[in-house]
From TrEMBL:
Keywords: ATP-binding, Ligase, Nucleotide-binding, Protein biosynthesis, Transferase. Signal peptide: none annotated. Its EC number is 6.3.5.-. GO terms for molecular function: asparaginyl-tRNA synthase (glutamine-hydrolyzing) activity; ATP binding; glutaminyl-tRNA synthase (glutamine-hydrolyzing) activity; transferase activity. This is Aspartyl/glutamyl-tRNA(Asn/Gln) amidotransferase subunit C. The gene is gatC. It catalyses: L-glutamyl-tRNA(Gln) + L-glutamine + ATP + H2O = L-glutaminyl-tRNA(Gln) + L-glutamate + ADP + phosphate + H(+); L-aspartyl-tRNA(Asn) + L-glutamine + ATP + H2O = L-asparaginyl-tRNA(Asn) + L-glutamate + ADP + phosphate + 2 H(+). It holds the Pfam family GatC.
Length: 95
């Protein structure tokens, strides 16, 4: 499959991409290269290949899900202009 310059211009228009005249030719070459690669991949014989043949059972180590403040609350609040009860104090925005 191969795209013409007109096809590239139409696709660019549909995608709302503005391409200059010089860019159309460069884009045509690039898209045709991608399409040729896809065509090449489609010719590979995959008959008899199990889809999941390369997957292996992997048991990754799990860590406990523990909530932690990182012990840096005081360092963070030190930069706050106002703080109340260990939290940032901000002006009320919505009445």
């Amino acid at each position: 499959m191969s795209l013409t310059r007109e096809n590239v211009a139409k696709v660019a228009k549909l995608a709302r991409i503005r391409l200059e005249e010089a860019e159309l030719d460069a884009m045509k070459v690039e898209i045709n290269g991608i399409l040729n690669w896809i065509d090449h991949l489609q010719q590979v014989n995959t008959d008899g290949v199990d889809i999941f043949s390369e997957q292996q059972e992997q048991h990754l180590p799990e860590r406990p899900d523990i909530v932690d403040d990182g012990n840096i609350v005081d360092a963070i609040l030190a930069n706050a202009p106002e703080k109340t009860h260990g939290m940032f104090a901000v002006p009320k925005v919505v009445e």
